[in-house]
């Protein structure tokens, strides 16, 4: 096995978009398990980036998450996706968000960099590790809550979004009350900057 990375080709821009989509898909599954939105028996253990992660067993849920993230790929490549949020909502009041996990990222428009694939994978692996142990930092969620997946995009018309069909334009509002931010992890690299943090109500 050749362990010398000096002559290996760097990460290509398209590969970063693929990797970000894979990461987001795994992160959504992991969050649904960590925050106990569904019973634990509805998840199974798998490995991603040589890390044990939780994966939903239900085919329709898996297909929904995969389709949602896959349909974002072209916009991620174009650099128009600013954030992706997993939002947990109180079912007794659908307008009340309880918690928002925000993936705030910037995919830089370089064709290729000297960054090696294993370096990028190692960085994203760190985010999943943090997610898997973040529960002590958070408040318990009520037993009856649901979740939403929201993408924050720029420079896209509502007509363009409608043509995509999977994603629905939304006038999603911010917090109507003071909120706090709990940082989880951040990274900076030649091709990708990312911050992961949690927003929840309360000053």
Automatic annotation (TrEMBL):
Transmembrane segments: none annotated. Residues 14-198 form the HORMA domain. Signal peptide: none annotated. InterPro entries: HORMA_dom, HORMA_dom_sf, Mad2-like. Coiled coil: none annotated. This is HORMA domain-containing protein. It comes from Sphagnum troendelagicum.
């Amino acid at each position: 096995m050749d362990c010398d990375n000096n002559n290996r080709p760097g990460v290509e821009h398209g590969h970063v978009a693929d990797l970000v989509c894979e990461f987001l898909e795994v992160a959504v599954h992991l969050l649904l398990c960590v925050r106990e939105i569904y019973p634990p028996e509805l998840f199974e253990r798998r490995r991603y980036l040589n890390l044990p992660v939780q994966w939903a067993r239900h085919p329709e849920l898996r297909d929904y998450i995969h389709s949602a993230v896959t349909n974002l790929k072209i916009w991620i490549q174009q650099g128009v996706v600013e954030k992706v949020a997993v939002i947990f909502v109180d079912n007794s009041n659908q307008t009340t968000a309880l918690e928002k996990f925000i993936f705030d990222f910037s995919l830089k428009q370089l064709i290729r960099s000297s960054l090696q694939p294993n370096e990028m994978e190692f960085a994203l692996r760190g985010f999943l590790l943090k997610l898997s142990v973040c529960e002590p930092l958070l408040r318990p969620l009520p037993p009856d809550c649901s979740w939403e997946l929201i993408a924050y995009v720029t420079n896209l018309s509502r007509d363009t979004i409608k043509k995509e069909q999977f994603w629905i334009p939304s006038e999603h509002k911010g917090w109507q009350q003071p909120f706090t931010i709990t940082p989880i992890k951040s990274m900076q690299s030649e091709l990708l900057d990312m911050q992961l943090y949690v927003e929840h109500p309360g000053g």
